[in-house]
Protein 1
Amino acid sequence: MVEIKENISLKPYNSWKVGGEAKYFVQPTNKEQLKEAYSWALEKDIEICVIGGGSNVLLSDKGFDGLIIQTSKFSELKNEKLENGFISFAALSGTSKSEALKVFLKHKSMAAIFLTGLPGDIAGGVVMNAGVGTNTQPKEFTEIVEWVEVLKPDLTFKTYKHSDLDWVYRKTKGWQPGIVTEVGFKYKHEPIDEVGKLMREATKRRIRTQPINKPSGGSTFKNPEGYTSGALIDGLGLKGFTIGGATVSEKHANFLVTDETGTAQDLLDLIKHIQVKVKEAHNVSLETEVRLIGDFE
Ligand SMILES: Cc1cc2nc3c(=O)[nH]c(=O)nc-3n(C[C@H](O)[C@H](O)[C@H](O)COP(=O)(O)OP(=O)(O)OC[C@H]3O[C@@H](n4cnc5c(N)ncnc54)[C@H](O)[C@@H]3O)c2cc1C
């Protein structure tokens, strides 16, 4: 039987290290346990939220008044094949992106460069259609995914082909409602000798341009049409601007970082402050890329 815990702090389960407690919390290790937990919540009419790496979520200081399904133990790679010029494999949705990277690296694939430094797990990558700003190929999750399996609210597993889904900027539509359980990857096999060198360059670029040694949620805002959010925020002199324990990073203005006193409310207040300033100066509305979970003021 899957163990559903109560009143668990969510701070360790997100990259900002903020947030209150989950009323109920579960870490399934296989599909049966995941189904059991989902069924338990559905029967009791309890709201659920799935988090993987927690690197793109802002979890409320008030916590989450439902069941958090945290997937770091829901991890497995399988069915790796090299066939007809393609690398393919499947991964349970809580498998970290770095595990998928290792498979592509073994085949000296450009997909390994794409995945270099991308935090979180496979499902987070699919749900967010995670991508990189550099001009490499592949540059978004949509390019490496063949199919997505979802546990639906009627407790059946449904597999969506890539083309069944609508892959847009930092969002994938068409699989909801449900929980992403497994992902099939497929990418052309075109080995690149300098893959190691290109990965080291990608890592250096992240270290140079992102505050990766501090707690952050990555890019806070999506880039509005025709702009980059970081440039808009930087242009207003907001680098270093602080509310409570949350600060606009000096390295990258679209990254908000926290110190040990930082709270989710500090981050939200900072987000709102930036949105107001950018709207006043440029008449541009910044939409958060990070997903807000739980109740906020
Ligand atoms: C330092 C840093 C650098 C980053 N760089 C990038 C970057 O270059 N490009 C980029 O795109 N992003 C970047 N991000 C943001 C983030 O890492 C990505 O969006 C990542 O793909 C999120 O994965 P995750 O497992 O952490 O997702 P989470 O934050 O856990 O979840 C993200 C969303 O997916 C939902 N979700 C998670 N798992 C499931 C599931 N199994 N079923 C249904 N829904 C689910 C959650 O409810 C939430 O809405 C960065 C973040 C940090 C902290």
Note: The radius of gyration is 19 Å.
Protein 2
Amino acid sequence: MPIDQLPAGELESQLASLDAEYERLGSLGLSLDLTRGKPGVEQVALSDALDGVLQGNYRAADGTDVRNYGGLDGLPEAKALFGSMLGVPAEETLVGGNSSLTLMYLTLDFALSEGLRGPESAWGNEDTVKFLCPSPGYDRHFAICEHLGIEMIPVPMLDHGPDMDQVEALVREDRSIKGMWCVPRFSNPTGCVYSDETVDRIARLGRIAGEHFLVFWDNAYAVHTLYDDAPALASIRHRCEEHGTEDSVFQFGSTSKITFAGSGVAFLSSSPGNLAALKAHLAFQTIGPDKVNQLRHVRFLQGEEHLAAHMRRHCLIIRPRFETVLETLDRELAGTGMGDWTVPRGGYFISFDTRPGLAREVVRLADAIGVKLTPAGATWPYGRDPEDRNIRLAPTFPSLEDVRATVEAFVVCVKLASIRQRLAEN
Ligand SMILES: Cc1ncc(COP(=O)(O)O)c(C=O)c1O
């Protein structure tokens, strides 16, 4: 029965048993951690064959010796492979170092400080620069904006992507909005996949928002499905072509959650003009990326078929962790009115909403018994969740047993906080 309909006596008796359970959990000396979206050790081990895959053959397909300097935008075969992951041609792809976050920072900082289309176009020429931040969203995107002094405007994240009515209204009325973050497939943290209509409307934003507007299309989980029926994502590039807005989108991706999170390969794509401008800027920072690692990845991942099989092995490792979390939430909380959660078909996260005003309290209760959760508020710009509801659950890194123990402790904390709140309201 929903908690709102329970009589006070019933709430009191549930509280007594929850208090006892919480105390028991506290005495176990737990040390559990469900905070960061990292691949687990079994997952990174799937790519151990990267080590040695070159077998002394350092020549790329065009004869380039990858051990030497050069190739600012990456090896041609790496551009082809990773371009195909983003659904773009090789010549519209730049392959960089190990982190897509670095490429996002580079692009944003460049547009802000120097301007993609010359100094006149630098966002920083204006007093205020704003970004739209679908929320809940990815804390490191928000951290980049905060660090660079960009004002963040949260917009609601719906089941099929950002609330586009709001997005369009905002960019129409406020020219200081220069960009927007998007994680279009298996978004961090809700796991939603943007619908075809949402992709189309985002591609059209360049027409509404002005020529300096940039969409940061962070497709970090492009191939990270948990189920075969996971929704596909429409091609933003094709939609941009239709609307003539190719200059308004930068796409990003990486192999961080395909091979090694710490030494994978990151890539981006945009229009030829944008790429040329960014490359000219990048040339001041580096003579070229780590092409040895790029070649290792190309040889290891060997085209899309092998990539699909590799991602299936990831899925088989992490799907049971997701299902453990979801089964426990269902069993313990469904129909209680104590929380809502997403059921993602891919990606790395489950997003949980407590009753309003309880996310911080749940995280605090969990922490006090040795269960670390992502700090409440982290999924919102400036760490400010207006309703104090959202908690991001990241089940990939801990062992299956630890995931189970963590989520069982988590539901006790959710129930405890919810029932205490209800009793205090009475
Ligand atoms: C949406 C999103 N983008 C980017 C990253 C980090 O990517 P990279 O390792 O390529 O810097 C993450 C990591 O969790 C992520 O969730």
Note: The domain at 3-43+308-425 is CATH 3.90.1150.10 (Aspartate Aminotransferase, domain 1).
Protein 3
Amino acid sequence: MKVSIIGVPLDLGSDYQGANLGPAAMRIAGLQEKIEELGHEVTDLGDLCVPPRKNLSLGKPNAKFFDAIAKVASDLCARVEEALNAETFPVVVGGDHAMAIGTIAGVSRFFKRRGQKIGLIWIDAHADINTPDTSPSGNIHGMPLATVLGMGLPELVAVGENGAKLSPEHVHLIGIRSVDKGEKTLLKKLGVNFYTMTDIDKRGIQEIISKAVAHLVKSVDAIHISLDLDGLDPDIAPGVATPVKGGLDYRESHLIMETVAETGKLASMEIAENNPILDIRNRTAETAVELVQSALGKRIVD
Ligand SMILES: [Mn+2]
């Protein structure tokens, strides 16, 4: 398989600076080499251009830096679509999770033009389904799931193509344990499939991911993984802006990747929220690179 690495040094979606260094940390952790070890041909397309926050005005307090984020997301959408057009598998490395607005717009546009549907495995401690009306912080990294489902700020919903990029029933949100009040309402109203850490404790990740994937295999043509590293337990991924105790452990997160990979329908993935400033000796990037390997076919015994 051919793989394209796309770096998104975006930190405008969060109050914490440092996620803009995430792509560099992933490269230092050996992202390209570790994918090549699996026999894939890898091209690193470098980083998108993101303006420094000092040069920007806040824009709207309930959707901070929305215009700059919309521009980066549009650029990313185009880059992802090009990578898919070139018959490569995009591995998009961030950058805060606002990047998902662009990545998913690109994946959606590529498959929509072929009359095909996409599904989404979204791993996160948070639901990321706030809108400017419900967000307590105004930080756009808490809004990308709502945005790709067509809710929220029109300038962001319009990225790529206006409107929802996929159907809520084709979204599986895994690992949540910190959900805002407004988000609880929207999660249920939209009909997104979601699995809290309590669900995972009770049912086990194997049952949950197998059923989620079986549902997607039946109903969509391609699957995208949006991995927010704060979905993982802070023990294995401490370098994130908003860590929450009690996340997915090392084996659980690998099993998710392996199970999705086995479908043969995984078309793209992104890794968000790696913040080297908050990390411990690049542990988070190293964990992330290992998870990319599992998603791209690495097995204990081949
Ligand atoms: Mn997130």
Note: Residues 2-295 form a domain with the Arginase; Chain A fold (CATH 3.40.800.10).
